[in-house]
């Protein structure tokens, strides 16, 4: 059994977890990765002394799978203050702990964001969700999140000022059409845990997972062209024969018969600027509730000093959609930043723009988990990836674990 050739396509979070679990069962998996690094969508570049994550991403410390697989101390996690800074051209104000402890928020500040009744409802929702298991949340009938918030009785004021800009940044879509199951899960996670980043960037997460591997081989710069039966055809013309294959990338990329089975993923534009110093001056997300282009901003060095090696601050800006050319978009974003900060637009120096075409999967039926039988598509081929469950690091880890269970089970004798 130990000599079985098990190939994993993709060294993202799902692929790494699948390898880790297979190692525990005594297998020697081989990962084929098209790029030169682990992590998939979770990666960090170093540009001009700044650490740039691919898209603004956070790790929620309440994620059950993250607690299982990651040593938070080894990552030197740096946490965000709960809440958000609401920014527009007229004023800025802080709403602290809206999901962790809504009743403790000062009434004055909250009244600008929502009503007293909103505060009570927020508290009630927090308590309700803490009592529900994650499985129960994902088995609840699904509504679009915006409809769910209105049905729960939240005012238009708090929906416009807080929920829409905050959850647009989480779901990467403007209408909050994302399932209420995902809203409830994320809301619960934020009320239990903290948003955090590793001290040296999100790319430290896959690096830490890789360090835990001992018998897995990873072949970098090895792109897979197609999987047919138990044969893996590489872009370089080679063919590998496998006993089992875990596809830990979107499978239609390597299996012709699955093309057209997946909705177009959510895209996002992530822009990084340097500025003399942070105008938020606290480890908090800034929400632009009137921005045409900018949805949310974060000064990454307010959260972790290691993101900057210079004396300038690093500003991460999330733009959900734009039909502008890059130069025009940079100008539009700089002018929106000037409007909310009072700092002249030319002081925001562009470092890099990331156009991320696959940021999150678009799913009709969100799940928390699935039986391992559901990730097997042929006797040889198994699937892993957050697109099987819901778009999150937690789901990516879950799916990798489930795929490895399915592979292990496939070797067990049937009676």
From TrEMBL:
This is Flavin containing amine oxidoreductase. InterPro entries: Amino_oxidase, FAD/NAD-bd_sf. It holds the Pfam family Amino_oxidase. Residues 13-407 form the Amine oxidase domain. It comes from Algoriphagus ornithinivorans. One of its GO terms (molecular function) is oxidoreductase activity.
């Amino acid at each position: 059994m130990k000599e079985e050739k098990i190939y994993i396509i993709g060294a993202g979070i799902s692929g790494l977890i699948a390898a880790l679990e297979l190692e525990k069962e005594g297998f020697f998996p081989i990962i084929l990765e098209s790029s030169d690094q682990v992590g998939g969508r979770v990666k960090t570049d170093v540009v001009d002394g700044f650490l740039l994550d691919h898209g603004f991403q956070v790790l929620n410390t309440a994620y059950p799978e993250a607690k299982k697989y990651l040593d938070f101390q080894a990552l030197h996690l740096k946490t965000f203050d709960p809440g958000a800074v609401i920014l527009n051209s007229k004023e800025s104000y802080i709403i602290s702990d809206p999901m962790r402890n809504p009743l403790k928020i000062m009434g004055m500040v909250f009244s600008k964001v929502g009503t007293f009744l909103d505060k009570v409802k927020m508290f009630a929702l927090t308590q309700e969700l803490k009592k529900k298991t994650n499985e129960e949340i994902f088995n609840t009938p699904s509504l679009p999140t915006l409809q769910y918030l209105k049905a729960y009785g939240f005012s238009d004021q708090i929906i416009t000022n807080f929920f829409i800009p905050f959850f647009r940044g989480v779901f990467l879509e403007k209408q909050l059409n994302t399932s209420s199951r995902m809203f409830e899960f994320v809301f619960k996670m934020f009320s239990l845990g903290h948003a955090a980043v590793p001290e040296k960037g999100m790319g430290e997460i896959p690096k830490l997972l890789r360090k835990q591997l001992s018998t897995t081989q990873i072949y970098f710069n090895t792109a897979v062209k197609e999987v047919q039966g138990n044969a893996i055809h590489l872009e370089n013309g080679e063919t590998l024969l496998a006993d089992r294959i875990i596809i830990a990338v979107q499978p239609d990329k390597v299996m012709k018969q699955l093309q057209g089975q997946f909705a177009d993923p959510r895209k996002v534009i992530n822009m990084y600027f340097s500025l003399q110093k942070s105008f938020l001056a606290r480890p908090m997300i800034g929400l632009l509730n009137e921005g045409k282009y900018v949805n949310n901003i974060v000064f990454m060095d307010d959260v972790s000093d290691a993101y900057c090696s210079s004396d300038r601050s690093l500003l991460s800006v999330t733009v959900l959609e734009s039909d502008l050319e890059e130069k025009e978009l940079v100008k539009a974003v700089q002018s929106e930043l000037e409007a909310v900060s009072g700092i002249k637009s030319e002081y925001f120096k562009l470092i890099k723009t990331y156009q991320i075409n696959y940021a999150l999967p678009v799913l009709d039926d969100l799940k928390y988990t699935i039986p391992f039988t559901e990730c097997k598509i042929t006797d040889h081929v198994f699937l892993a990836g957050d697109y099987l469950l819901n778009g999150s690091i937690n789901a990516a880890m879950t799916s990798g674990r489930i795929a490895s269970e399915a592979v292990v089970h496939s070797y067990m004798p049937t009676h």
